[in-house]
Structures are given as structure tokens and as C-alpha cells.
């Protein structure tokens, strides 16, 4: 369950849909709340400042203009974003697209745009003229004022989004982002426990005598990139005094039917153990940084190789990528006990 939750969290972080979807529901709630506030103000007879008052026609025109302008600007901004992703994929490496999708700034701007549009639609449908239905004019002045604030904020956010996207194409920014994620990931994944560290320091390795025992080979039930494995869940499958030998690791492409691990001695219920082991690993269509400590270096190496290709011929970018690779390798990989030994 914990492994599946981590996989879903990674999908949400790389998704351009989840945050805007929350913004849509939030804007619907805000719209109904502001309309309720307008009804309360109308019933209490409170006068609003002159700048907050509107007529039926002006309210409709203003809300329609904000909604239309917001979506028009959004179309331009998101077209620029897709163009930048395409250029980054062809100029540097298809692997860097994953980091662009995870950029929280893009998701927040998209959420603000769709949220403003949704809010304007919710408020617009409540505007009534004296000639409609009950004959009483309904002009939600406070809601219209909030729409104006959201509209201005959205336009500024879109301009800032274009500026952010332009700077995001700077190769130095891309390399720095990859290096930062790689270092943070290695630091998070390679934090050995005190017991494990002490055992390694003393030169002790856990051993178990399995001489003369038959082994059970557990194989992958699907093909794809090995993204995660749950070590605690795998250890639950090892019998007392037994040994499990993994023949793969996160970051490798696995093929259905190839060995995942070898379990010694053979368990009593082989099918149940095999199912439990297969559910303790996550195999996906793409390579991720969840437990793959070498994926950051792979991205930096791809950028360096792409820069040295005949079509690009940019040795400076290749040099910068090598420097960032050294920052990851020398400060994290070389400092780790397993590599230092």
C-alpha cells in the first residue's frame, strides 16, 4: 500500500491535470461563497463603495470579457509552454521533459487561469435583469469585484509565466535543476541506518547458511522500467534463516519472465510468495527518480552527448554538463561507503 501510494504521488507531481482540477473545484466553492455574501449584503441593505457597484449589463460584459481574455491568454501561454518542451526535448534530451512537467510554477499558473475562468462562469450565471424570472435585478457586486481582482492577477501571472518559461530554457537552469534533484534524491535514498552503518564499519556482512537447499526463482509478471521496490515487504517473504538475492535494481528495464529474485530455501506456498513479491515492486512505462539514484547522471550525460553531436556542436554545454555530473558524483556517489570502498 505504501509503495502504491508513493507511485500515485509521483504521478500527481508529474501531472498537469491534478492541480488545475483542484483549482476548478476551489473556484466553484469561492463563487458560491461570494454569491452568498452578496445576498447577505443585499438583505442587510449595506451600501458598498462606488467602485464596487455595477449594473446588469456592465457586470455581464465584465465577467464575459475576463473569462474570454483569460482563456485567450492561456491558449497563447500554454502554446509557448508546449513549444518550449518540444525545443528542450530536441535541443538537450527527451529526459529533461520530465523535469519541466514537474515544475510547480507551471501548474500554479494553469490552476489560476482555469480557476478564474470557472469563477467567472459561476458568477455570470447568477446575474439577472429586472425583466427575467422574478422581476428583481440580481447584481452580485462583491463577486464581480473579486472577478476583477482575479482577472488582473491572472494576466500578471501569465506574463510572469512567459518570463519563467523563457528562463527555464537556459541550459544552466536545466542543468542546475537536474543536479539539485539528483543530489537531493541520492541523499534521501542513501541514508543508512545506524545499525547498518556500524555493521559496514566493522566489516560485518549478514550471512546465512543455505548450503544444500533448493532455490525458488521469482520472475517479473510484466515488462517496463523498475521504478520502486519495497524492501520491507520483500523481507517479509524471506523465511527464517533464508536468503533473498535480488538480481535487479530500480532504474533497469525489466522484461516479463526474467528473474526478479532468488529465494532460498523454497517457500511452502510458492504462488502466494511470488504474487506478494511482484506486488512489492513498481514497474512503469517511464524511468523516474523515485529510487533510481543514477537517473540524474543519465540526464546530464544525455545533455553532454547531445551537445557534442554533429547537429548541435556545443562543447560549452557539454563541459557544463560534465561539471554538474562531477558535482553529483564526487559529492554523493564517491562519498558513499559502498563506492568509497
Helix content: 55-70%
Largest sheet: 3 strands, antiparallel
* H/E topology pattern: HHHHHHHHEEHEEEHEHHH
Averaging pLDDT over every residue, what do you get? 80
- The low-confidence parts are 193-205
What spatial order of strands do you see in the largest sheet?
1-5-3
Number of helical segments with 4 or more residues: 13
Tell me what portion of residues adopts beta-strand conformation. Answer: 5-15%
Anisotropy-based shape? flat
The computed structural class is mainly alpha
| Number of β-strand runs | 6
Distance between the termini: 35 Å
Radius of gyration from CA coordinates: 28 Å
What do these coordinates show?
This protein is mainly alpha-helical and 341 residues long. Among the domains are: 2-169, no CATH class; 301-340, no CATH class. It is 61% helix and 8% strand. The protein has 13 helices and six strands. The chain has helices spanning 2-13, 18-44, 56-91, 97-101, 104-124, 141-168, 171-189, 194-201, 231-236, 270-278, 295-307, 315-333, 337-340; strands at residues 216-219, 224-229, 243-246, 253-254, 259-264, 281-284. The strands form two sheets. Strands 1-5-3 form a three-stranded antiparallel beta sheet, covered by helices on one side. Strands 4-2-6 form a three-stranded antiparallel beta sheet, covered by helices on one side. The longest helix has 36 residues, at 56-91. It is flat, with a radius of gyration of 28 Å.
